[in-house]
Protein: Selenocysteine lyase/cysteine desulfurase
Amino acid sequence: MGINDDQQAPLTIAQARAEWDVQKAFLDSCSYGPPPRRGWDAMQRSLDQWRAGSLPWQPWAESVDTSRELFGRLVGVPADQVATGAAVSQLLVPIAAALPDGAEVLIPDIEFTSGVYPFAVHADRGVLVRTAPLNTLAEAVDESTTLVSFSAAQSATGEVADIPAITRRAREAGALTVLDGTQAAGWLPLNAADVDFLAVAAYKWLCAPRGTAFLTMPTEATAADDSHPRRAEFFDRLKPLAAGWFAAGGAASYGMPMHLADGARAFDISPAWHSWVGMTPALELLLGVGVEQIHTHDIALANRFRAGLGLEESNSAIVTIDLDQGKLSWPGALDRLDAAGVRYSQAGGNMRFGFHLFNDEADVDTALNAVTDTMTS
Ligand SMILES: Cc1ncc(COP(=O)(O)O)c(C=O)c1O
Structure:
């Protein structure tokens, strides 16, 4: 199978699932996403090439541009609006540095650290990180807010943000928006054009190796906002602070003058080659299935799990159970999950289960059987 372009019929979930060798019942996509076989194989081939010294490096580096283009398709922007890097926190550095002294950054009170600390480290120049509950984040935006940074799906709880409400209010207030799509891209349809910046670490729901991440940003033309001097001033200050030879377009270069690549590519850092080789086939596969189809599948599994636990339906592929809720008996449930081979994670005091395209109803039922046996009513 090659790239499934728009003309080809989408792959079914069953066809896609056949590409995974993941053990039963892996329900931990919130921590990391096992690769499809085509991604694993491509990466192993490139590691062999490296080991034997049989190829130049350029074909590995080309995977970065291919992945950039594929990710752009996934979130609805052209490749020149996509920067590549190694981690969300790293990609947010230039954004945080462009904030003026004394700027206020608004975040949900349970936001994952990588979307918080890049801003919080600027406290010495008066940058203030203010928190508000996720469900009232839109109302918390006010005229003093310079930037709102929030996750599309929360790491600790799986809660899905009301992106239209938050971005609408931010736009009214002239505030910039940074959306962290790490726990969402790959199962939740995201449109990068809804926000100023969309940052995604690809090693979870995009099933890529660690060391791969994306940041989308507006073009110079779309960033210009005469009605909001504060926004215009911000984009004037935005600089590719980690610029090196890769930010110059990917061919080795020397000395001055500086020739940065056009568009978001100037924000690239030198890539972890082999990880990007493993990423490209994974993105092709996810696009071949289509996020809408994955969304329907993942939510159905999550809601089957929720129903079995006596929880209401939700719009998230992530289900969390509060360890202090008292409904489950500990450590019995943990022991039973381990004995059944269920992989899940603990985050922010919650047990966290993620349901993705390689999972099926049997995975849900394996986890349910382990957990519900220990439930108290
Ligand atoms: C919402 C969110 N953002 C980002 C990350 C990863 O951050 P980084 O790429 O800085 O390691 C995670 C990892 O758990 C996450 O849950």
User: Anything to note?
Assistant: Confidence is low (pLDDT under 50) at residues 1-5. Residues 13-30+291-372 form a domain with the Aspartate Aminotransferase, domain 1 fold (CATH 3.90.1150.10). The chain has two domains: 13-30+291-372, 58-283. The two ends are 49 Å apart (CA to CA).
